[in-house]
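Suppose you are handed a protein chain with no further information: no name, no annotation, nothing but its sequence. What can you learn? This example shows the usual starting point.
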Amino acid sequence: VQLVESGGGLVQPGGSLRLSCVASGFTISTYRMSWYRQAPGKERELVASITTGGVTTNYADSVKGRFAISRDNAKNTVYLQMNSLKPEDTAVYFCNGVSVYGRTERWGQGTQVTVSS
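A reasonable first move is to predict its three-dimensional structure. Written in structure tokens, the prediction is:
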């Protein structure tokens, strides 16, 4: 049972990246899914979240209009499209799932995103 993130890397300011989070051992269809990030010396913060059916999304003010979260329940995968990246977006990005039944929370190991010229 795990979440595995991919798609991180080094990108120049203004560039784009697409993160993916693939679940195995369980189905995400009954999980609210989110992306968090943690920069060096800072606390982990919520970046974006999406409800089970993908109808409702929420974003941190710092990424509104630049990032987009989506999900494909058939592929058991969640995505984070990141555009117009800034140096302050540099962080380790973590995938998170919380069961709608409330008892189970899962985390991925994270993927590094570095925005630098």
